[in-house]
Amino acid sequence: MKVLAAILTGLSLVAPAAHAFELPNKIGLPKADYFIVQQIYSGWWLLGLFLPLAFLANVANAIVLRSDRISMWLSIAAAALIALNLTIFVIFTQPANAATGNWSAQPENWQALRAQWEYSHAVNAAVTFLAFCCTAVATTR
User: Can you give the pTM of this predicted structure?
Assistant: First the structure.
């Protein structure tokens, strides 16, 4: 279970980290260019499936590691951070996707939606990185 939790949590970090690293180069793009670039994310929703799997794996990891209190609590923390990632996505990222038809429609408030979308991904990169750190420490103790 430990290895599975580490792998799934690591895979959950891939998409948010990619978004965070792209942010400085994308945030200032003109409208037309930004909407073209956003089309590269078609199909990336599949990567989001790693999040609930990582959540479940970290909960299971906490159960397996319950005899080691520190590892158990680190696994619980990882699961909570993954739940926070999903919450941020639902509150900030998905509404921007919906308002833009997954970035195929260009509403008047596109710049506010862009900031909401980009920065929610950046925050989720940090949150998921912390989850990965918790899982890594829990599984290597």
Answer: 0.94
